[in-house]
Amino acid sequence: MSGISVGEALNWASVQLERGSDSAMLDAEVMLQHVLSVSRTYLFTWPDKDLSAEHWQAYMAMVNERAKGHPVAHIIGEREFWSLSLLVNNTTLIPRPDTEMLVETALNLKVPDNCRALDLGTGTGAIALALASERPSWQVTAVDKVDDAVALAKMNRDKLALSQVEVLQSDWFSAVEGRQFELVVSNPPYIDERDEHLSQGDVRFEPLSALTAADEGFADLFHIATQARAYLIAGGYLLMEHGYQQAQVLREKLTELGYQDVATVRDFGSNDRCTLG
Ligand code: GLN
């Protein structure tokens, strides 16, 4: 035994983390849950429970990593997205809650039961796997240009036993040449390369290739929108996440390219977050 209780460990950690993180207590809890393999409720039900020496050592090491700035998701190696627990590492973007709005929007579209859906730049596989978990009859294809991301998305697919999801290495549409889809979704890189928030917080530990795009962040959004037309059936949908200030320009671009019923959806923080056409 370590002589340190659950409550004491959490208080110690939140003090260590207060300076570097605006979610110190939450970070402390998530990491302790992970070390002890317990639910959040457990931490509050058993605050006086002693940690074993091994658990306390492991926990201190994690808190020190977090204090150095590393994202909690990288430290514990997983992240919740939708109702799924996904493996994550530093080769892809860490799935964000904002992106759940894209999933929700996609699930509300009028598409056939055997919908063919394509997720471009899938990273961990988050969007594709969330869609497949909700719509077992869909044929979901997830692609990424980065080999490590393809490997990670496959690991997540296998862990979640969503074997109907096909994961391919592909530079945007290159591996699905000639195929047709009812739905194309993407959370591509869309941050302006000069954006100053890239030097702050968790994003410093994520690959720039998953975050930034040329032309004030529009390069990949525009590329996908232009190419997607050849891969969508008539009446199919394109749905992309973007920055909250990019909505209007993107709507104009989609309209110019011939997309119809172009509309933007807001996220839970009331920011324009994804655009549909
Ligand atoms: N929304 C993310 C951020 O601001 C970026 C996601 C992306 O580039 N696709 O950190």
Automatic annotation (TrEMBL):
Q: Residue ranges of the Release factor glutamine methyltransferase N-terminal domain?
A: 8-77
Q: Which residues bind substrate?
A: N187, P188, P189, Y190
> Which InterPro entries does this one have?
DNA_methylase_N6_adenine_CS, HemK-like, N5-glutamine_MTase, PrmC_N, RF_methyltr_PrmC, SAM-dependent_MTases_sf, Small_mtfrase_dom
What HAMAP family would the database entry show?
RF_methyltr_PrmC (MF_02126)
A matching Pfam family: MTS
Functionally, this protein is described as follows: Methylates the class 1 translation termination release factors RF1/PrfA and RF2/PrfB on the glutamine residue of the universally conserved GGQ motif.
The family assignment reads:
Belongs to the protein N5-glutamine methyltransferase family. PrmC subfamily.
User: Could you tell me which residue ranges the Methyltransferase small domain spans?
Assistant: 100-197
Q: Which residues bind S-adenosyl-L-methionine?
A: G121, T122, G123, T124, G125, D144, W172, N187
**What reaction(s) does this enzyme catalyze?**
L-glutaminyl-[peptide chain release factor] + S-adenosyl-L-methionine = N(5)-methyl-L-glutaminyl-[peptide chain release factor] + S-adenosyl-L-homocysteine + H(+)
Give any single GO term for biological process. Answer: methylation
**What molecular function does GO assign, one term?**
peptide chain release factor N(5)-glutamine methyltransferase activity
Record-listed E.C. numbers: 2.1.1.297
Q: What class of enzyme is it?
A: transferase
Source organism's superkingdom? Bacteria
Name of the protein in its database record: Release factor glutamine methyltransferase
Q: Which NCBIfam families match?
A: hemK_fam (TIGR00536), RF_mod_PrmC (TIGR03534)
Which UniProt keywords are present, listed alphabetically?
A: Methyltransferase, S-adenosyl-L-methionine, Transferase
User: Its encoding gene is what?
Assistant: prmC
